[in-house]
Amino acid sequence: MKENDRDYDLALIGRARAFALGAHAAINQRRKYTGEPYAAHLTEVAGLVTRVQGVTAEMVAAAWLHDTAEDTAVPLSLIETEFGTRVGQLVGELTAISTPEDGDRATRKALDRTHTAQASAAAQTIKAADLISNLSTVEARDPQFAAVYMREKQLLLEVLTKADERLRSDVRAIIEDYFTRQGSDERA
Q1: Is 146:138 a contact under the CB 8 Å cutoff?
Q2: CA-based, 20 to 30 A from 127: which of 49, 58, 70, 183?
Q3: Is the pTM above the cut of 0.85?
Q4: Domains plus CATH for the chain?
Q5: Could you report the per-residue pLDDT of 21-39, keeping only the tens digit for each?
């Protein structure tokens, strides 16, 4: 890679990081179960993505921005304008498409899974990193909901067929460990 390409990549990632952190901080978003600033989740997801073989600057930028359109007032069109078509496309692939009007939780999750199944390998890899970050907090903080959540993520893992295999394996291990500790016969 040429030096100016590397500089561009680092600048893109830095701008995405600052933008995402600012957007989530502007609404004082916190992690649901830990109460820590949302920056911790974004940092973890981006960090996991940076370790994937074949990672691109656009993937890392999208990892920082993956919840911005879904959770803040920032429209996807602005992300595309600010960070380019590819980053906007990845964030769009990572943004849930269901709305409360679509029905109950199971129906909405099924719609979102179908959307994710059609996502690119890069977007599915970011989604796998997102799952690793989210799965780590739910069981300890909300044991009653954890069983529902783990089953939903088990179904989601089934459609992440194009994601980085190491991250998929890590997600599978977390889910299998949960069900083993619960004495369940369900497996990812």
Answers
A1: yes
A2: 183
A3: yes
A4: 3-181 (1.10.3210.10)
A5: 999 999 999 998 888 999 9
